[in-house]
Amino acid sequence: MIIIHYPNTFKALNSFIDDYNEQQEAEKDKIKGSTLLAAKEIVRIYGASLVKVNGIQPIDKTDLPPLVTNNVQLSHLLKQSTRTVQRHIKKLIVANIITGKNWHGSNSGYELFINPDFLLTGEKISGKSAQKTLDAALTESCRNEAESAFSKEHTTNCPHTYSCNTSNNKTNIIIAVEKPEDNIAVATDPLTNNTGNTTGDSSERCSLPLTDRNFSGYTSGDGAGYTGKIEQKNLETDEEAGKIEAQRAGKKSCTGGADAHSPARFNSLNMYVSLLWLMAKNLLYEGVYLTERQAEIGKSFIRKLYAPVKTEDLGRIHSIYAERISLVAKYISRDPQNRYVQLPYLFFDPKNPNGFVGTKRWHEDYRRRKKEVQAELVLNRQIQKFIRNKTGQTAKQKSQLQVFRECEQTLGKMKDPTLVQRFYAAVMDNQTYKHVCTS
């Protein structure tokens, strides 16, 4: 079955229109917001029509059929007049979003040919096929990890050179970060110049200027920053890290008994660790060069974050972790020139209070603020509901007492007595409100 993935298609459509608008000098020739909304609605209708047509006869994504519609249908869906719809279609044809239009007369519909460059069509697979593909990928991942754990190759004692800021300086932490001074010196030690980025392009985000030679995350007095102990600790594979964490948790672990070592839990952990790492890499380390070793250490620390969690709670905890990653990404996006995140071996370290562990307080404040805003919206809606019913003179008007009780019950479900008191103060006169408060 041919389907259209709407989120990716809409992103491609936005990029297509941005490129088109940059080429237009006159403001009137550019695609505006209303025309963009019309294009997205046409794409949505086209996706539904492809599913319908495919149910009658299988279609090939290299030769997609046109969209059969009319001005009345589009005006009803867009909440606009038919003349406005015609004007939007003309602009979309000029922009090559609609590549062609076959008109069949005034009393008939027409065919619209959509540009396939941004549709990103694909074939929908069944749930069994998707599950089989996922199981095969997880099995291959487990086999690769087992082979790497028993590999005969020896790891060198030389630590990897990190290309990002590794200092624990208070100006380099993600929590309550301070803007760095303009006169920060760049490390010039030959050991720190090998960043893996040999292009020399300063436009690509690279954290080399933030690297501190004197404190690189390894405590040593010889300036090289290596003692041999930390490297030995980092030689643990993902599987060994999960087992050690479970052993340390002991009776305190919530996973419990045989479930901690079951294949189902192992596969679930691998999936959630990979998803969270992929999200962090795309949002927090975009444009930053990370070695394979850094990725392995980051995944091992992420696995430790999931280790004490029950198997049935992994999905819920993963959604919380994803929200915390999003909060950090939003924080950095407000000032990307002066804000950054530590390398994975520091940021995801469970013992680092200034890394991912510190975002727990951020998430709690975010959820509390979100709950407060939701309560304010509910209160305002109930006040407006009572006032509209009181001032309205229509046949649908209800008794004031009935509406008052409905609003009171709705606010009571919020389990916040102050909301009910504020509702009383807003809809009652002073004398009645004082009587209710004293009674």
Helix content: 40-55%
Low-confidence stretches: 152-156, 159-163, 166-172, 176-239, 249-258
Give the CA-CA distance, first to last residue. Answer: 67 Å
The total of helices stands at: 16
Query: What's the number of domains?
Result: 3
* Class based on secondary structure composition and strand pairing: mainly alpha
What's the short version?
This protein is mostly helical.
Describe what this molecule looks like in 3D.
It is a single chain. The chain has 439 residues and is mostly helical. It folds into three domains: 122 residues, Arc Repressor Mutant, subunit A (Orthogonal Bundle); 207 residues, no CATH class; 73 residues, no CATH class. Helices cover 53% and strands 5% of the residues. Strands 2-4-3 form a three-stranded antiparallel β-sheet. The protein has a two-stranded antiparallel sheet with strand order 1-5. The protein starts with a strand and ends with a helix.
Q: Strands, helices and their partners?
A:
Blueprint lengths: L1 E3 L1 H18 L9 H24 L10 E3 L1 H8 L3 H13 L3 E6 L6 E5 L6 E3 L3 H23 L40 H4 L35 H5 L4 H12 L13 H21 L8 H15 L7 H20 L10 H4 L11 H33 L8 H13 L4 H11 L2 H9 L1
Antiparallel strand pairs: 1-5, 2-4, 3-4
Helix pairs in contact: 1-2, 2-4, 3-4, 8-10, 9-10, 9-11, 11-13, 13-14, 13-15
